[in-house]
Amino acid sequence: MTEPDIPSAYVRDKRTPPPSREELRARIPGWGADLDPADRPSHPKLQYPADTGAHWDFPERQPGAEGRERSIEHAFVTPVFGTAQPLHGLSGAIRRVAYRRFSEGRLAHWMLLIVGDRVDAWENHLRSFASGRPDVPATGLRGELTGNGLRSRAGRSDKRHQALDPVVVAGPWLAAAGVTALGARAVVRALRR
Question: Taking a C-beta distance cutoff of 8 angstroms, is the pair 135, 128 a contact?
Fold first, then answer.
């Protein structure tokens, strides 16, 4: 990578000098109204030493950046990145669309990442069923029945929500089981014809 290709954010000495006060005043109406340090309580915090202590100009690039997801705001993947959880399946495709098409400032970017997360959870649930050792839904039903769970609910302030707890927790599992049963029934009927 040549020197001009590296963004200023990744180098110790900034190559692009900031515009002068006169340039800013001419370009932006009202610029410089808070220039007097006496009017700015954060003034001492804004003084940065010239020597940051960095002992490198640009870190050595980690291999394998090709095909990694990155925001469209950035010229390239950061010099060091994680590889423990590579994108895979339908959830990975959804996340790639979020990174490839939408800026981090757009709601669509974040909504697609959330949808990708939910799809990933369901992919793992389905994979657990295929493995023969399905995930146990964490409903807390056993604790309700054996550990004084029902009695412990007596003094709680969320009594209105208690009736919905079983629906919210177990509902998606029951719906998935129902859809699976209907699908299996349809397959059996189709094979009998």
Answer: yes
Nearest to residue 174, comparing CAs of 182, 187, 163?
Answer: 182
Q: Which two tokens stand for residue 159?
A: 């009594």
DSSP secondary-structure letter at 115? Answer: H
At residue 107, what is the residue type?
A: L
Radius of gyration from C-alpha coordinates of the chain: 28
Helical H segments across the chain, by residue range = 21-27, 89-101, 107-130, 141-146, 149-152, 159-162, 165-192
Map residue 141 onto helix, strand or coil: helix
> pLDDT (tens digit, 9 = 90+) per residue, 56-96?
777 788 888 887 888 888 888 888 888 788 888 999 999 99
